[in-house]
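Re: weekly structure request thread

Next one in the queue (344 aa):
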Amino acid sequence: MDADLERYRRQVRLPEIGEDGQRRLRASSVLVAGCGALGSVAAVLLVRAGVGRVVVADRDIVDRANLHRQLLYDDDDAATPTPKAQAAARHLARANPDVRCEAVVADLDRTNVPRLVESVDLVIDGADNYELRFLVNEACVRAGRPFVSGAAIGTYGLQFTVLPGETACYACLVDEIPAPGTTPTCETAGILGTVSTIVAATQATEALKVLTGRRDRVRRTLWAFDAWEGTRSEVAIVRRTGADGCPVCAQGRYDWLEGRLGGPAVRLCGRDMVQVPPPAGGRVDLDAVAAGLPADAGVFRSPFLLRFTARGCEVTLFPDGRALVRGTDDPGRARAIVAEHLGM
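Done, posted below.
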């Protein structure tokens, strides 16, 4: 075995991988769209497996409430407010310096998702909301990139892989976004850390099949399980073809990518937090904003963000002008608080 494969020797010994498969992994690239419970675990598994380039993209920051299930982070990341993508890339680089790890600290939306998806060979679903899944699904179908989706809530998890042109897509599985407040979230229903880890490990396994050239071994069903009860099931998802079929993979409509669907402010995973998108014109001078804040605003400044309190809420402002407002679930109030400081 060549010296450059020594790190992976026990993986290479698997007939399912072999030296050829390992070299395929080294030449491949993956986007992890959302680096929370699913994305962080899937990312570290793929990095340790030797995927050559891993891009981790996330809009959020590390919180102590993440640590029981988001295994890539630690108390230091939560104590000093750190963007998840930045913390993830740092930890991943330590796990395997052979892999090129890239951090994208940004909201994933229709302005950046197409470029990110087109730059990789496969996308891992680490989203905490339906909008991002619909958006990434459209981008993957249009670009012909496999989309390895997953979800976890309570003690229940599921996983589903989209192979454009071969299988049903995510829009075949889910017709439309459920109304706000009608589905459980990690905050309202809780989540068992082992469940998200199982789902993420399954996502990583399906990704490895694709990246090593074994698409024939990818499961073409929706796989679901209840970890507490020890039950599992598989359901075949039929591709909705024809003129009246799936709007995405059958009709070629990309409503999320083209802006016909989607909202300007997003409630984040039931956590009493709203994300406010950046203002027109792009980047914000965080130092200038900090200079205009009152002395009792509890200002925290790092190379990546500015955090302060305003009107009873905690505001985290990023250089691109995007803001996270904790302490409200009202998008209007969140936008008003940010507008006071950015002149929006």
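The first strand starts at residue 29 and ends at 33. The two ends are 60 Å apart (CA to CA).
Next request, please.
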